[in-house]
Amino acid sequence: MHDASATVAAEAVGASHDAKNPHAWRDRLTPYARPSAVRASIQLANTALPFLACMAILLYGLDRAYWLAWLLAVPAALFAVRLFVIQHDCGHFSFLRSRRANEIVGLAISLLTLVPYVSWRRAHAVHHATTGNLDRRGTGDITTLTVREYLAQPAWRKLLYRLYRNPFVMLGAGPFYLLLVHNRAQCA
What we know:
Layout: H1 4-19, H2 22-33, H3 37-64, H4 66-91, H5 99-113, H6 117-130, H7 147-152, H8 155-164, H9 167-187
């Protein structure tokens, strides 16, 4: 008689062995590393259509049922984030096979996310080219000081730096500033 738990245990041992082998990971992930028009179309449909539906209902509900707007604000925001992730992949030319198709989709999505596609893509490319290189700081990165630089700052600058690096600022106020002020100022 075959024991199902023994099979699961054997698969777990095999999976942990595979996890240590980079070639096994590459073989498993290769099918997902290539753009697929079918998967891209499905992702666009199951993200953009619900986003647009949420936005239409939100606009309809603002005059008629204010509570409906509050109810749909969170799902609409989550769909907007997912749209930005797709825009990001278009910026890396990895969402679709064609560079031109990535540009068109990225530009179209930017109208929904309100993140200017071309200027964001340029800044993001510089970010990838310079990230982790303290000699090339300043574009598309989070300000990072070395210990020596931090210690050389006056007390008020140290306080500002610590406030800037606080998770409430980094994950709260920072994204609002980037999306609502910084990205708009770059386009002007």
